[in-house]
Amino acid sequence: MAEELLINISPTESRVALLDNGVLNEIYIERQNKLGSVGNIYMGTVVRVLPGMQAAFVDIGQSRTAFLHANDMQPLKLPAETGKNSQELPESASQKMLIAQAERIEKRLYEGQRILVQVTKDQLGSKGARLTTNISLPSRYLVYLPTGEHIGISQRIDGEEERQRLKTALSQLMHQVNLQGGLIARTAAEFIPENKLEEDIYYLLQLWRMIQARREQSPKNRRFELIYQDLSLPLRSIRDLIGDNTEKITVDNQEVYQNIVQFAHEFVPNIHSRIFLYEGEQPLFDIYRVEEDLKDALNRRVNLKSGGYLIIDQTEAMTTIDVNTGSFVHGRSLEDTVYKTNLEATHAIARQLRLRNLGGIIILDFIDMQEQEHRDDVLASLQEQLSRDYAKTNIGQVSSLGLIEMTRKRTRESLQQQLCEPCPTCQGKGFIKSPETVCFEIFREIMRCARVYNAPKKFTIIASTSVIDLLLSSEADTVAELEYLLGREINFEVEKLYSQEQYNIVLD
């Protein structure tokens, strides 16, 4: 696929759009007043240790304390002779038991302890940021793991010969510079010569030394301190998103363009000729229809070219995506129509997951298919489309009801969470009470007031236009009956600032 990167800069935010063959597939947004913290390294203070959850809350200076689980802490290393004196258990079993006991979080952390941590997930809604003590430092081709012990190769590098070449080269280079820890070769490292890998290793070594020095210099009386901050969004996109398929990088800001050119010259020189400054009058995102695609990405409904459509509902617990045939009736049979719609939906679903950055548990409700071959084809198509996703995904099998359960790694807020807030009228439910329901509530409230309060002379109903209109039209007979029953006059007053669910009853 031919990829293109668009980098839009304004005084308040930076936006990076990733296009595949001219189609928007991913969008990254970083606002100046709400910078992301994934990748940042802090000296934090343990606020509370929870032995039952095997977790701790750590103060890193954010509005909510961050969360550290025992599984996200670097494992302890016990001496090789540990467990030799055990007579009841074999040496290996005894050693494992001692390690398990020692690794319990209440044995390793205490309230008030200062600890070096890295953010792996941004603060999302009511949940604080997720932390790890397993520090990882990415460069263009490598990821350095100061507390690791192995050399890993990206799963996207398929060739066994190339994987072995990288593993051997990295092992030799680490020994050559006496680099302790572990390394992971990123996808971009494929077919990269050793001298470029060596440059990356020296960069990472210096970076880690700088972090260690800042940690030692951090004042002991501070509860938290930012030790290392990841690159800005435009530079991260050059480091992380550029691949062999990237044909063009377009930037619409002179200063950022120069920073990117300088960064590329130092770390990614082979893309230097593909970076362009856009100086046109029409906004960059308008030319490529990015603004329009962003607007559509906030809608529940996604139309398919065939006439079918998706309905995407995002909740705190999970996201559901429902596939519908809509007006598509061009199949040779109902089964054929369903099959073709589901196949087309796999492409749209994969794109929407990336574009909206949907993560966590995702339930895909495909249209029921009778033939097992069709189910297998749809699942294979979905797996193929998701193989291009930068985020890690796990996909289950198609159930008898046409459901597929899957997960997608979530490290930052979804597009909806970034750009939207809960509706003040419906409080995030996605729907409000109908005018008829509100009218019936008003009738019940009038009856209650008539019983509780001492003979008011009249009632004045203050409500939205839609509710008052209904009270004066189809519900006028009910209003008349109430006036007769209570022997009191009922008046109406429209308040244009009221939502459909709001109303007041004034007793005169």
Task: Write a structural description.
With 508 residues, the protein is α+β, with helices and mostly antiparallel strands. The protein has helices at 91-102, 105-108, 160-177, 194-217, 233-240, 254-267, 284-287, 290-296, 334-356, 372-386, 415-419, 435-452, 465-472, 476-486; strands spanning 3-9, 13-20, 23-31, 41-50, 55-59, 66-69, 114-121, 130-132, 137-138, 142-145, 151-153, 182-185, 225-228, 246-251, 275-277, 301-303, 309-314, 319-324, 360-365, 393-395, 403-408, 458-463, 489-494, 503-507. Strands 4, 5, 6, 7, 8 and 13 form a six-stranded antiparallel sheet that branches. It has a six-stranded mixed sheet with strand order 16-17-18-19-21-20, with helices on one face. The protein has a five-stranded mixed sheet with strand order 3-2-1-14-15, sandwiched between helices. Strand 11, helix 3 and strand 12 form a beta-alpha-beta unit. Residues 81-89 have low confidence and may be disordered.
